[in-house]
Design goal:
alpha/beta, Metallo-beta-lactamase, Chain A, about 25% helix, disordered N terminus
Length: about 400
Amino acid sequence: MCGSVNDLARATLSRRGLLAGTGTAAAALAASSGPAEAAGAVPSRAPRRADGHRTQLVLLGTSGGPAYWPGTTRAGIASAVVVGDRFYLVDCGSGVLRQARSAQLGNASHDTDGPLDALRGIFLTHLHSDHVVDLNNVLTEGLYNGLHLVDRQVPIWGPGNRGAIPPLFGPPPAPPVVTPDNPTPGTREMVDLMVRTFATDYNDRAFDNRKPVPSQLFAGHDVPIPAERLADPNGDPCPRMSPVTFYEDDLVRVSATLVQHAPVFPALAFRFDTEDGSVVFSGDTGPTDNLVELAQDADVLVHEVIDREWVETLLPEPRTPAQDGLFQHLLHAHTEVTAVGAVAEAAGARTLVLSHLVPGNWPEHKWRRARAGFSGELVVGRDLDRIGVGRASRRRR
């Protein structure tokens, strides 16, 4: 979810209107929910299992946006692609390291030697705070959670430098530019800056505890999107392109494409191909042909989703021009629950998994409307769910 939602809402709504909208949302939620789903609580059930599958999708956190939604225990957006005894992180939302241990990834039962001993890569769809806020925890506290045991440098892949600040939303005056000498660092620069910020800790751990230093553990990389697709960050928010393959090891091949999450640019979707099948992550996006091409015939499509009904309660009619601009902004940068099924169907995906749910405390039955227009299996994601890819092996049951 766009990180500016709360501030923009406060700027465009009167206090009375905002309170009325919030009250309407709460009343509608209470009226439409059963006792177990009141206030957006997730119904109790054990996480889905995927026994026998060598390749698995693990949902570590399914909440969308920087808001810590009341009435839910969903962690921030993060997922893992597990292949055998290794895993690859996709986004690093709030709580990702604890969730990786809860999911029993790597050597999770050991106090300090897991779960990151099995980590082989980190992939960031874009650099909004809700997708990267706990990356630093993985890199610093990871020294005492297995990262020090990885036998190779862990790559951290994500979007590069935007190259220009985004256009001003709403009327002037414009706010001051943060770090005007480099206002939009990309993934490689961000990781380097994190290391500089926490150099005191890294040096203490190295000199006192003899832990490896960052250059021995990880490195940031910008996904090599063709330069001509990145030339106008404030123009076409999602230029048409075909996927590019940028990472491959003995277990996975990873491809990326641009998606529509303006004004964030570049924003990426990822596809992981293994011997067992494919998993695609939409990242934050409105519907786009780029994603449909990337996700062609995918076994699993993990897609973000927003509910228009919630946006309407946040910005009720009648809306001023500024409020309507925010309303359209929220919907165009994301995919509505009633539209996501058609995206998955166009891609020919076999399973559609909903994650990055906005709002994160909405009752589950509202998300099941994503089934409209989709002929495959729908999974409304919950934290720690596992979804198998390909056929299960009886030997692994």
